[in-house]
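pinned: reference chain
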Amino acid sequence: MIEIKEKIKKTVEDGLKKEGVKTAKVELKHSADLAHGDFATNAALVYAKKVGKSPRELAIDLVRSVTENQLEEVEKAEVAGAGFINFHLKPKVFALGVTDILEKKERFGKSEHLLDEKVMVEYTDPNIFKPFHIGHLMSNAIGESISRLTEFSGAKVVRMCYPSDTGLHIAKAVWGYKNKLGSVPKDSDSLSEKTAFLGEAYVFGSSAYENSKENKAEIDELNKILYEKSDAEANKIYEKGRTWSLEHFEELYAVLGTKFDEYIFESEVAGRGKEITLEFLKKGVFEESEGAVIFDGEKRGLHKRVFVTSKGLPTYEAKEMGLNTEKFKRHEDLERSIIVTASEQDDYFKVVLSALSEVDEKIGHKTEHISHGMMRFAEGKMSSRKGNVITGEALLKQVKNLVKEKMKERDFSEEKREETAEIIAVGAIKYSILRQAIGGDIVFELEKSVSFEGDSGPYLQYSHTRASSVLAKARAENFQFPISNFQFPEKRNEPNSLERLIIRFPEIVERAASEYAPHHIVTYLTEIAGQFNSWYAKEKIVDKGDPSSPYKIALTYAFAQVMKNGLWLLGIKTPEKM
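pinned: its C-alpha cells
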C-alpha cells in the first residue's frame, strides 16, 4: 500500500509538472469515508491559482493525466466537490494484500526504516521501598509499546530501567522500618506483604518528617549515613528492603510482558553525577548559590534548580548527569535515548536536558523526553506520600477479579481461568492507557475497561479469538492451510471495508513509530475489529459449497494475523479462548 501510494503521488506530481509546477509536492491521504475511495488529494486546490485554472478544472486535467498513465492498481480516479481527487483501487490489490499478509505473518507491518539504528528506551523507573503505583503502570505500558514499535521498524532497542534506590525517600522508609520493627514481615511471607510493609514504613517516615523537627533532623542525618554506607544496621535494613522491592518489581514485569535489557541504579550514578556537576562548575555551566551548586535556567528561559545541596549531596538533577553520560558510555553507538516519565516532570526535564546539552552537546541532542499524563479515578490524583495510593498491583488484581466474574459461566479449568483472566486484565489496562494520545490525563473506567464489546482491550482480544475459532472450524472441515489456493474472481462487487483496511497496517505502524504514538495502533485495531465483526455477522465464512469460501477464510486469517501483530505492538497478548 505504501508503494502504491507513492506511485499515485508521483503520477499526480508529474501531471502538475506538465501544468508548469516544477516542484510540486502532493499530499495523498486515505479517504475518511471508504465510499469515496481509498486515497484522496487536494493538490488541485493547492496549485490551481499557480497554474491559472479553477481547482475543479485543474482536478479534471490531473485525473486525465492519471488515467493516461494507466496505473495498474487504480480502478478509477474521479473529481469530487470543488476540486478534490478520489482514487479507487482495483479489487485485485486487496487480494494481493491478503496474500502478502498470509506470506509474511508476524513480519507483516515490519519495516527497515530504522535499520542499523540503536535506540535506548528508559521507562517505568520505580522507587524501591515505595509501591509500584499506577504512574509506573502508565510509563511501563507506553515505554514497552514505543520499544516494540521502534523494534518493528528495524532498530536495535535497549530497554533500560532506572530504579531509584537512594535519596530522601529511602531514608524516610528506612527510618519508618526501624520504628516499626514489631510489624516486619517474616521471610516466609509473600513479596506483596513485604513490599506493602515497606510502603507503610515510607508513609510513617514521611509523616514523621513533616510533623516533627526532631524526626526531620534524624531522617536527614540518616539520608547522609545511607549515602555514605557508614552504619551497619541501616545498611542491613536497606539491603533487605532493596531486595524485596526489586524481586517484587520483576514479578510485575513478568505479568506486564516487559523484560529489561539493562538496569542503571540511581546509587550507581550519584557519585559520577556530582563529579560532573563540580567539574562543570569550574567551566561556568553551573554556579554556586548559598553553599549549593545550581544550574541557572533563568538565563536560558527556564528556571533555577539545585544540582548539589549545601550539604554536598547530589540531587536528582545531578544524578541525571551521571545517568545519561553512563548510557552513552555503555553504548557509544546510540542514535537516540528516549526517556518516558509523567508530565509532572516536564519542567524538571527541560532544565536537566538544557544542562546536559551544555555538559555534552551530543548526548543532549540525542536525548528525548516523552511525557504522559496521569491516570485518574473518582478520588482524583493519588499520592504514595499520604498513603492513599492505588498500587499497580492492586489495580491489576481488581480488574482481574472483575474479568473472572464475567468468565464464571465459561468452561475453563481453574488454572486456565487464572491465566486467561490475567491476560485480559493486562490488556484492559494497557488499552485504557494507550487508547489516547500520550500526554493527556486518562480517566480509568473499570466496567468499561473489561467490556467485551466496543472500545476496550478485551473487545480486540475477543475479535481475534472469534477469528481464530473460524479458522479452527475451517481446519476441522479440511480446508487447506495455509490458505494459498483461493481463487479471486476478476469480476466482483466493490471490495469490502475489511479488505480495504487491513492492508493499511504497515502505514499505521510507520506513523505510530515515527510519532511515538501507540494510540494510532489502538484506533486502527478498533476500526478493523468493528469491520470484521460486522462482516462475520453477515457472511457464512466456512462453506464447502461456496467457491469463494477459501478466500473468505484467507481474509479471516489475514485479519487475525494483523490483529495479533497490532496487539503485540501494544504489549497485549491474545488468549486462545475467552
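why pinned: The radius of gyration is 29 Å. Residues 232-256 form the longest helix (25 residues).
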